[in-house]
């Protein structure tokens, strides 16, 4: 597991996401994610790979009992400081999503994992853990870069302007290859900070979910909100071709070990 990039930029990430999420979260990815999450009041919610916990706090404010888990100790430290300043009853754990032994079987109504599965090295084991900790008929809602249209290093935009027409193309190669790529973020203390992104084809996600007893029940491709369109140069492009997806999967049977 490589999380040192997240450790290095924990302070920046916490300030950047704050209490509401950044533009990409707030105005593009979160609206369909929150719609699928639905009413959370009175529910047990696990925020898996919770980062600075801004979604954990949102759910807790809506009356959910929330546990947040992240592999980065510095990020969890920041989430805990926010909890200390404004107590909402959230418990945070530092743990790899693939090994959630501190959580009991069958306790959560809802597991959320926002823009993190692509960071998780052992995503198959994380899926098995999600299936284990969910109640029967419990739901997992997660977002990730769209496997068909976004792959670090081998996908990109091609904006073709042949007056009077603008055509938006999204290029993608090496789709079927399960690869890991370094994602450059920023410089902290004179050092380049990278995280790792794992690309898996869409069929891999569906197959692995099914092997864990999780059936896909919804699939969304976030469309830019007015706020995103106004603020991001990528807004009109993403309005045509989605670079993220949000998946809901329900626990339908006892979990099994993925192939
Ligand atoms: C892009 S951030 C998303 C954080 C948060 N869900 C959000 O939407 O702001 C990815 C997160 O995944 C966490 N992460 C990476 N690998 C992990 C693993 N194996 N287990 C748990 N968390 C992990 C990182 O520490 C980081 O907080």
Automatic annotation (TrEMBL):
It comes from Ktedonobacter racemifer DSM 44963. InterPro entries: Methyltransf_11 (IPR013216), SAM-dependent_MTases_sf (IPR029063). The keyword Nucleotidyltransferase does not apply. Residues 46-142 form the Methyltransferase type domain. Keywords: Methyltransferase, S-adenosyl-L-methionine, Transferase. GO terms for biological process: methylation. One of its GO terms (molecular function) is S-adenosylmethionine-dependent methyltransferase activity. This is Methyltransferase type 11. Pfam families: Methyltransf_11.
């Amino acid at each position: 597991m490589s999380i040192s990039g997240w450790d290095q930029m924990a302070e920046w990430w916490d300030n950047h996401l704050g209490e509401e999420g950044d533009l990409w979260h707030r105005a593009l990815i979160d609206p369909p994610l929150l719609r699928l999450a639905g009413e959370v009041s009175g529910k047990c919610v696990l925020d898996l790979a919770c980062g600075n916990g801004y979604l954990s706090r949102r759910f807790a404010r809506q009356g959910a009992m929330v546990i947040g888990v992240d592999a980065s100790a510095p990020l969890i430290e920041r989430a805990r400081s926010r909890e200390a300043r404004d107590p909402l009853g959230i418990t945070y754990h530092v743990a790899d999503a693939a090994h959630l032994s501190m959580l009991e079987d069958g306790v959560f109504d809802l597991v959320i994992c926002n823009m993190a599965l692509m960071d998780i090295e052992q995503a198959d084991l994380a899926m098995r853990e999600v299936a284990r900790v969910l109640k029967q008929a419990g739901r997992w809602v997660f977002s990730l870069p769209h496997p068909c249209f976004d792959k670090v290093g081998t996908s990109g935009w091609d904006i073709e302007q042949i007056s009077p027409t603008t055509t938006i193309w999204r290029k993608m190669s090496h789709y079927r290859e399960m690869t890991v790529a370094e994602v450059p973020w920023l410089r902290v203390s004179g050092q380049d900070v990278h995280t790792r992104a794992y690309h898996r084809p869409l069929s891999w996600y569906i197959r692995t979910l099914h092997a864990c007893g999780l059936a896909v029940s919804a699939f969304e491709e976030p469309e830019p909100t007015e706020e995103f369109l106004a603020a991001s140069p990528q807004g009109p492009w993403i309005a045509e071709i989605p670079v993220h997806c949000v998946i809901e999967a329900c626990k339908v049977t006892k979990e099994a070990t993925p192939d």
